[in-house]
Structure formats: C-alpha cells, structure tokens
Amino acid sequence: MTHRPARDAKTSAHGLAAPGPTADAAPVPADPAPQDPGTAAPAEPVLSVRDLSVRFRMRGGRDIAAVSDASFDLRPGECLALVGESGCGKSVLASALLGLLPRNATTAGQALAGGIDLLAADERTLARTVRGRRVGLVPQSPSAHLTPVRTVRSQLRETVRELTGARKTALRQATEAAAERAAFPADHLDRYPHQLSGGLAQRAATALALVGDAPLLLADEPTTGLDRDLVDRTVDELRRHADAGHALLMITHDLAAAERIADRVAVMYAGRVVELTDARAFFGTPGPRHPYARGLLDALPERAFAPIPGMPPELGDLPEGCAFAARCARTTSACGTLPALDAGTACHHPHEEAPRA
Ligand SMILES: Nc1ncnc2c1ncn2[C@@H]1O[C@H](COP(=O)(O)OP(=O)(O)OP(=O)(O)O)[C@@H](O)[C@H]1O
Ligand code: NI
C-alpha cells in the first residue's frame, strides 16, 4: 500500500477544539438531521473511513503498524464506541482524522467527511475548516491542550466568539452555558489550567470541544479522571449531542460508559478493528463474536472477572496471521492467515450468534 507522509500539523496553542484566530469565520453548514424513522434511505455518513492505516517509521527503518485497514462509517445522530486495550491504536486513529500525527507517521486509505478526505487535506484546510468546525476533539490529555497562561473562561470565551460569533452579554452567557454543558463549575472558570484537577481539565476540554457544534465529534477518553456520577453526566451530555444529529466517535476503556452511550461498538486489537457491531447485541445477547471482544467483557469485575491471559503483540513485530492467535483458546491452523472483517467480525472461528450459556 502507498503511505503518504504526515503533514506538519501546527496545532493552535489553545487546543484542538477551536481553530486559531486566523481561521475564517464562515460557518460550516450543519449536516442533515438524523434520519426520520419514517423514511427509507439512511442518512449520508458524516464520516466514511476506508482502509485507514498508520505507520510510524522508527530509527533503523523499523515500522510500527499502529492502525491497519480500519473501515467504518458514522452517520448523523450515531455514536460509535471504539474500545480496546491500551496501545491498540485508538488515539492514533483519531489523530489521523485530524491531521495531528507526528512527522514520522504515514497514512494510507481514505477518511471522507463533508466531501473532504481528512487524510489528504492540506494543513490550511484542516486548520480553517476541519478542526473544531467539521470535526471536534476532546483530547486524551486535556491539560496538554489547554493554554497554560490563560484562564478557562478566557479560552472558552475565545472559542465561543470564534465559532458562534456571540458578543458582549450574549458571549458571557454563552461562555457560561458552554461550561455548564460539560459540568464545569462556574466558580472555577477564572482558574488557570495548572489549578485544575485532571477531572476538571477533562471537563474544560469537553466544554471547548462542544462549542463548535461540529457534525463529527471525536471524544478520546472523555471520562478519564471523573468519578462515576460525572462519568454518567458527561456520557449523557455526549449522548444528547449525538441525539441532536451529531456523529460521535467515543474512544474509551470504560465499557460501562460505552454501553451507556453507544449505538455500535468497534473493538480494536493490535491496530485492527476485529469486531464492529451493534451495541445492544454486543453488550447483551448474543454478545461479542470475536474471542478477544468476548474476553474483554469477561474481564469485567461485574462479569466473569477473568482477565485475558498473555499480552498484546508488539506493533513493530506483528505476526502474519491473526494477531490474537497467541492468546486465543480457539486458535486453529487457519489462524496463520489474517482473517478479514466479515459480517462484523475478523476471526476464523467466531462465537456463534446464539445466546450465551
Ligand atoms: N509518535 C509515535 N511514534 C511511534 N509509535 C507511536 C507514536 N505514537 C503512538 N505510537 C504507538 O502506536 C500505538 C498506538 O497508540 P495509541 O496511543 O493509539 O494507543 P491507544 O489505543 O490510544 O492507547 P491508550 O488506551 O493507552 O490511550 C502504540 O503502540 C504506541 O506506542
Ligand atoms: Ni489513547
């Protein structure tokens, strides 16, 4: 496959949620509202990802295969939860969609959003029309994306002014409403990022990401550092955002949060989507079909509390066949070849679609 080099992304200092001050003020037309249940044709995808791969070129010529051949669509009003163990490629996938990969990365494939191929777009297009406007991001490390020398109020106000055009009293009110939406306490608005706990920084980042009303929101671990009540509150706010017609890619370790919010679930393992399925079927009956996905659920304390034995493979040294075979109790000789994602599962011997015993 041909990999193209990553662009030299100049991220605006105040984070990805808002474009820099040079961005055009022209509003991006909203995507169509979610499909009326009475109509037959499904709404056009807000995001259409095909065979997305990301490679990191390391010293000595070695490649890290962080993401391989990911394909999925996201429609207006839909939430797709992207789950999988640490290091499986979730954040790299999100960074690729925003043109925020480091220089040693190359991408292949396509990611269409609003007629733009996010993987091929130049930095100017990404900065002016994509980040914050078409695609919002709740970054995984919010404190790193907040400007250290400015208060939360000042950063939020600038983003609200940039993206909504509000001024004066309306601007003040919209700024406070934006904070409230992400459960960021009004009496902390005048704090600087270093004066915030991890959970508060997370909420500030979520508030910033919601302002632009982008048709597509990427939320990378938006509930990290929050206690259960706030997890639920954040998740419910993100769900409302999707219900209002936005597409949401929710990256999370938290399977309970994924179950609460998602319409569909994508499970990644060693850089590949190994299961892509309806959330209700996944969390309920018949349950996941891929043995890894089933193992993830079985590892939960409220389920079998049985961890998957072994460790994921090195992404710089992947086997030719199924990357999960070494840890899988169902491995056969067929697993020496790479299983394609077929009917939502990339496995040579998936669990049958029957109720679990
Ligand atoms: N700049 C880089 N250079 C080389 N390898 C990288 C780089 N950035 C990420 N990786 C590798 O890509 C893989 C995927 O990383 P990624 O951050 O997407 O994982 P993740 O699924 O988001 O994990 P977590 O749940 O811990 O956030 C990891 O093995 C990581 O080490
Ligand atoms: Ni991550």
UniProtKB/TrEMBL annotation:
Cite the EC number.
7.2.2.11
Q: Which reaction does it catalyse?
A: Ni(2+)(out) + ATP + H2O = Ni(2+)(in) + ADP + phosphate + H(+)
Report the sequence similarity comment from the record. Belongs to the ABC transporter superfamily.
The way this protein sits in the membrane is described as: Peripheral membrane protein
Q: What SMART domains does UniProt report for this protein, alphabetically?
A: AAA (SM00382)
Q: Which CDD domains does the record match to this protein?
A: ABC_NikE_OppD_transporters
Where are the residues of the annotated region Disordered?
A: 1-46
GO MF annotations, alphabetized: ATP binding
Low complexity composition-biased segments: 17-28
Q: How does it assemble?
A: The complex is composed of two ATP-binding proteins (NikD and NikE), two transmembrane proteins (NikB and NikC) and a solute-binding protein (NikA).
In its keyword annotation, does this UniProt entry include Disulfide bond? no
Record key words, sorted? ATP-binding, Cell membrane, Ion transport, Membrane, Nickel, Nickel transport, Nucleotide-binding, Translocase, Transport
In this chain the ABC transporter domain maps to: 49-295
The answer, when asked if Acyltransferase is one of the entry's keywords, is no
User: By what name is this protein known?
Assistant: Nickel import system ATP-binding protein NikD
* EC top class, as a word: translocase
Regions of biased composition (Basic and acidic residues) lie at 1-11
Q: Give the organism, scientific name.
A: Streptomyces stramineus
Note the InterPro entries from the entry: AAA+_ATPase (IPR003593), ABC_Ni/Peptide_Import (IPR050388), ABC_transporter-like_ATP-bd (IPR003439), Oligopep_ABC_C (IPR013563), P-loop_NTPase (IPR027417)
**Where in the cell does this protein reside?**
Cell membrane
